[in-house]
Amino acid sequence: MRRWLVSALMLLLGRRGRRLPEPEEERVVPAGARDARAESFFVLLLFVAAVCAAGFIAVYAIGELPHRTQFLGLALGLAFAGLAAACIVAARHLVVTEELEEEYSPPEHLDEQEEVVAIVEQSGSRFTRKRLVKLAAGAAGGTLGAALIAPAVSLGPILDTSAFYETPWRRGRRLVDDAGEPFVASEIVEKLFYTAFPEGAPRNDFGAPVVVVRLQPAELRLPSDRNGWSPGGILAFSKICTHAGCAISLYRTPLFPPASPRPALVCPCHYSTFDPSTGGDVIFGPAGRPLPQLPLYVDTRGHVRAAGNFSGPVGPSWWGVRLKDARP
Amino acid sequence: MRIAGLSVLLALALPVLAAASVPPPYGIVSANAPESTPLRELGEQLYAGNCATCHGPNGEGFVEAEPGRGSGGILGKAPSLRGVGELSADFYLRTGRMPLGHVGEEPNRGHVFFSERQLRALVTYVGSLGPGPAIPEPHPERGSVSTGLRLFTQHCAGCHQVAAQGGYLPGAVAPALDRATPTQIAEAVRIGPYVMPRFDQSAISDAELDSIVAYVAYVKRPNNAGGWSLGRVGPIAEGLVAWLIGTAVLVATCVVIGTRLKA
Amino acid sequence: MIKSAVRFLDQRSGTAPLVRKTLRYLFPDHWSFLLGEVALYAFVVLVGTGIYLTLFFEPSTAKTVYHGVYAPLRGVEMTHAYRSTVDISFKVKAGLLIRQTHHWAANIFVAAIVLHMLRVFFTGAFRKPRDLTYYIGLTMLTVSLLEGYLGYSMVDDLLSGMGLAIGYSVALSVPFVGAEIAQLVWGAPFPGDPQFWSRMYIAHVFLLPILIATLIGLHLFLVAARHHTQFRQRRESEWRLVGVPMFPGQAPRSLGLFFSVCAVLFLLGGLVQINPIWLWGPYEVSNGTNGAQPDWYLGWLIGALRLVPSFDVTIGGYTLVPNPFWGGALFPLAVFGILFLWPALERRFTSDQAFHNLLDRPRDAPVRTALGAALFTFVFMPFLAGASDRVFISLGLSYNWQIWFFRALILAGPPVTYVLTKRVCEELLAGEVVEQRRRRVEASA
């Protein structure tokens, strides 16, 4: 029993004794001088980071806390900042920054290149009609590739662009506001703009929303084929800008016309400006096409209804935008 | 170098000064009336000295500017004030939009040169020029901020920006609403000043107006849960921060970290 | 302990030689080489925060009515996409921090890539044998722009919804096939099929990140295989490389940079608000707001769209080139086209087919630097123009005047920049020659 005790003690204590000095080895990484101050600073920064990270956990755990996002960000950000600072201190003062030289790898390996080429070329020794083989392989690969891509055309109606001309408007469709209430012609006043939707149709299409304004009939200079489109001076235009599809949500209407700009519908994205009195012509900004106008009439109950579809397709231009009319 | 810097500053500052409303070049004319003068009479005198040149001696307005009319060579041209009521006068005068320096310039919020009594006098006088709307009393506490958001987005955001930070439109500027009081908002909505649409009761009822006013009041100090709000104008300010703060700090860190080996 | 870990690794994978080589890989000594790393670490933060967000975001366009914590939106109809983002911002405890960090990281990611690209360009690092590395980098830049655009558009708020409509109009404006392309991507005319949202979502959270990560891997592999370039000092040459080994010298530096990037991004994410979508409200086709802008890296496109004068190119009834094509499609195509073709063009016009491991200082290649500066001006002018409405509101400078000013600058700016930059480079070089001569004379005196 005593022998075991002594051996155990020797094993434990003997290990803590001083080691024999090792022979001087060739070092891979050169030794550097101590920097006690930097080392202490390094340790301090790590503890600061630890405290901040703990702070993050604490803030996270608290029930109700105003400005929680700010505290969380501060805690986590400072924790990372502490780690970053520690690493930088280590980089500058605690690790050896060696300056080593090396050769760039060779620009090319001509022998291996030749061998690779030889391997590929020599492997084809059993093919006699190389051109035919290549043609056949190309045909197979090409058609298979096309076949694999083919289902992608079902992502959309690809060749049939008729949907671009469709709007939910047709003759007789009543204009309603966003609460579903019909517009009464006599209640539509000047110096104001209204947003109207087709009754009973989806609202979130480009073709749906229209902007309604009222001008004095004497001010109107509509194209000749739009006679009767604006009963009592009430005008309706597509609310979607013909430039890039934003909603035309500005109406510039002068309180005192002799000293102010003319009435105009303006788009807030790139400031395309349309003149309602001429049927939606572009008077400023990049839009390349006038604003499509919706013909109106007033029914027997005084409600405003569409007299047909727009004067042209709605929304931004594409190849066929001037080829066909808008249709329901 | 300093002169260059100063001139750059000046070049930047001048347009800022120009953006605010320019007061009439001759200043404000005060009436030399005793304290006991009734408001309407005081208002009439102030009106004669400050407003009649453009708005006419009896508030009838001038549509065509004729040379030779008015003091100081001012070519007066302005709408009639008959029937605009105290509502309009209160809005334009209390926000310093009137008196306007030059005909045709956009009436923007500016310094108010009149005293409180003078303001009340002018408002009373203009209100007496014909039957017109009284100064509105909006009740934002009766309105709902979420209804106000919906209405403001539909009717106002196109010009004033959805967080009421103001916006541009060809020929005008829609001001930010941070300094607008609830009364002034209600007044502007009913007047439709300069090129703003005029929303009457059928377009925006008083109840809806309460909600819009509540929304604008909210958006002056909205929930900025994310921290520093950068003016709530969106990606331009965010991009500036990303470059001038974020990227700048990181490039500086790279410079600190990168060693320069001994040559 | 280290010994047993290394032994374990080598016995099971045989990679000790590779690890040894990697540990002593030499890094060049200039700070500008760290810009690419900043982008890399921003990407790591993007992936980390992005994964967290996918655990809470619902990419659905089905409508719902909000009844949550944020009072001003109660009772408002919105899509699940928007609603789940509002919930991330207000209901999930660290949700807003992670969301904002993610968005700041995206902005700084692209900024770092741009700075890195500028460094690579103006020092000629794209020359053989690193042209392939350069192409991969440019591809990553392009993909990142799309990735960022999809990321903030997924939320379906008012600002990004308007931005999607504009993107749709640019697709539509491609001559001949624009409508077909737009229909293919959106599934139907705008606002498109509900499946479009699924496509955006899967592209943003899976397809494009995998693509970017793969390209990053290839990019880093090529950089390491061919080794970094370096500035010429005393001992460096086209054959000899001088640098700091990865371990122990460079590792704490790179690690420190990584933690710095994390620190900056999380501090911004917590302290500076970005994209407060609860203030913008949900998107409706019939709604718009003044002052809507894309994120900064698309600012050059909104400026270009605003500057192009009003015309559609038509022949008969056929609309050959709708207006948004010039600013929204041709302009970025031209800029990226020039950047992609640059290494080949430079090789051809300088008849320089050699390998280059040493970098030029910008002044050492006056024509390249001048042309690069001109191209930068060509991009920067529309970028400034994109903010002209806020400049008008803040400083009072007439919008109309600014538009004409920037139109003139786009044409006049690049040639002027070219001439000035070339001159500056040549003068600097001439000054150095004089300095050298002076020193030589003094030394011999």
Can you offer a commentary on this structure?
The complex is a heterotrimer of chains A (328), B (263) and C (445). With 328 residues, chain A is α+β, with helices and mostly antiparallel strands. Among the domains of chain A are: 34-96; 165-306, 3-layer Sandwich (Rieske Iron-sulfur Protein), CATH 2.102.10.10. Chain A is built from five helices and twelve strands. Chain A has helices at 2-15, 36-61, 68-94, 110-123, 130-149, and strands at residues 100-103, 175-176, 193-198, 210-214, 234-238, 250-252, 264-266, 273-275, 281-284, 293-294, 296-298, 304-306. In chain A, a hairpin with a 6-residue loop joins strand 7 and strand 8 (273-275). In chain A, helix 2 (36-61) runs antiparallel to helix 3. The longest helix of chain A has 27 residues, at 68-94. Chain B is an all-alpha fold. Chain B folds into two domains: 13-127, Cytochrome Bc1 Complex, Chain D, domain 2, CATH 1.10.760; 140-220, Orthogonal Bundle (Cytochrome Bc1 Complex, Chain D, domain 2). In chain B, helix 8 packs across helix 9. Chain C has two domains: 2-339, Up-down Bundle (Cytochrome Bc1 Complex, Chain C), CATH 1.20.810; 361-445. In chain C, 67% of the residues lie in helices and 5% in strands. Chain C has 16 helices and six strands. Chain C has a two-stranded antiparallel ribbon. In chain C, a hairpin with a 2-residue loop joins strand 5 (313-315) and strand 6 (318-321). The longest helix of chain C is centred in the C-terminal third of the chain and has 46 residues, at 399-444. Chains in contact: A-B, A-C, B-C. At the A-C interface, helix 3 and strand 1 of A face helix 5, helix 7, helix 8, helix 9 and strand 4 of C.
